[in-house]
């Protein structure tokens, strides 16, 4: 099966600019996650979708971060405006139904550098 | 919310040596436990998982982990590592439908 697709792989922007990341989950997976992984740390959940509804966005900095999954398939994550501390790898993951027995499948991530 | 602790962030060992990576978590409710691995240049992959039953679980590539409920631990082990085990290893705990990761262990195996 095809894996989770993310683009772009790398992005370099200046602070205060905007950026968007795209994710295409595994076909048929209802649950989609965006994680932020800062260098030297483990992935931190930003937002979780079940189909096109938000399940958990408690750790999403909503003043600058937004995400959508309008048709319950692809998703975009946006940062506007970016700060230096947003430099990280942004990981997208999907699972079949988000249940306890449904493992996460990760994409390769987008490495963001904010200068 | 749950938290996950991994110690000894950097581990360097020779081929055929034994590997043990510690993982402790804090969470008051029922948890599911995972170890993920990230090989250089690749995405995170599931190594093994514990949901219930036998606390000693076996994963891919000869890895195993033991859940000790009284110690809130889920340590990862491999009796004899290979150069190809060079990777970053993350312990993760799922509680209340949220998956939380530890900071990871960077493991380098010297041929």
Mind explaining what this structure looks like?
The complex is a heterodimer of chains A (115) and B (111). Chain A is mainly β and 115 residues long. Chain A has no helices and 11 strands. Chain A has strands at residues 5-7, 10-13, 19-24, 31-37, 44-50, 53-56, 65-68, 75-79, 88-95, 105-106, 110-114. In chain A, strands 2, 4, 5, 6, 9, 10 and 11 form a 7-stranded mixed beta sheet that branches. In chain A, strands 1-3-8-7 form a 4-stranded antiparallel beta sheet, with no helix packed on it. In chain A, β5 and β6 (53-56) form a beta hairpin. The radius of gyration of chain A is 13 Å and the shape is globular. The model of chain A has no long low-confidence stretch (mean pLDDT 94). Chain B has 111 residues and is mostly beta strands. Helices cover 0% and strands 56% of the residues of chain B. Chain B is built from no helices and 12 strands. Chain B has strands at 3-6, 10-14, 19-21, 23-26, 32-38, 45-50, 56-58, 64-68, 73-78, 87-95, 98-101, 105-110. In chain B, strands 2, 5, 6, 10, 11 and 12 form a 6-stranded mixed beta sheet that branches. In chain B, a hairpin with a 4-residue loop joins β8 and β9 (73-78). Chain B is globular and about 40 Å long. The mean pLDDT of chain B is 93. At the A-B interface, β5 of A face β5, β6, β10 and β11 of B.
Main sheet specs of chain B: 6 strands, mixed
The shape of chain A is globular
Oligomer: heterodimer
Largest sheet of chain A: 7 strands, mixed
Task: Quote the beta fraction of chain A.
Answer: over 45%
Q: Tell how many strands the DSSP assignment of chain A holds.
A: 11
Q: Level of helix content of chain A? A: under 10%
């Amino acid at each position: 099966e095809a894996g989770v697709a993310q683009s772009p792989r790398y992005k370099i922007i200046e602070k205060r600019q905007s950026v968007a990341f795209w994710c295409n989950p595994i076909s048929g997976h209802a649950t989609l996650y965006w994680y932020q992984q800062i260098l030297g740390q483990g992935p931190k959940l930003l937002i979780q979708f079940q189909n096109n509804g938000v399940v958990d966005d408690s750790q999403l900095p909503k003043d600058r971060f937004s995400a959508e999954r309008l048709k319950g398939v692809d998703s975009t994550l946006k940062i506007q405006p970016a700060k230096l501390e947003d430099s990280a790898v942004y990981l997208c993951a999907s699972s079949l139904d988000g249940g306890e027995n449904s493992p996460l499948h990760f994409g390769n991530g987008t490495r963001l550098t904010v200068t | 919310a749950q938290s996950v602790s991994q110690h000894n962030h950097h581990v360097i060992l020779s081929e055929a040596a034994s590997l043990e990576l510690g993982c402790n978590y804090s969470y008051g409710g029922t948890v599911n436990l995972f170890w993920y691995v990230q090989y250089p240049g690749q995405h995170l992959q599931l190594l093994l998982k514990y949901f219930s039953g036998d606390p000693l679980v076996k994963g891919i590539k000869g890895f195993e982990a033991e859940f000790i409920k009284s110690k809130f631990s889920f340590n990862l082990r491999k009796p004899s590592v290979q150069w190809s085990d060079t990777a970053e290893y993350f312990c993760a705990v799922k509680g209340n439908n949220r998956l939380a990761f530890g900071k990871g262990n960077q493991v380098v195996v010297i041929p």
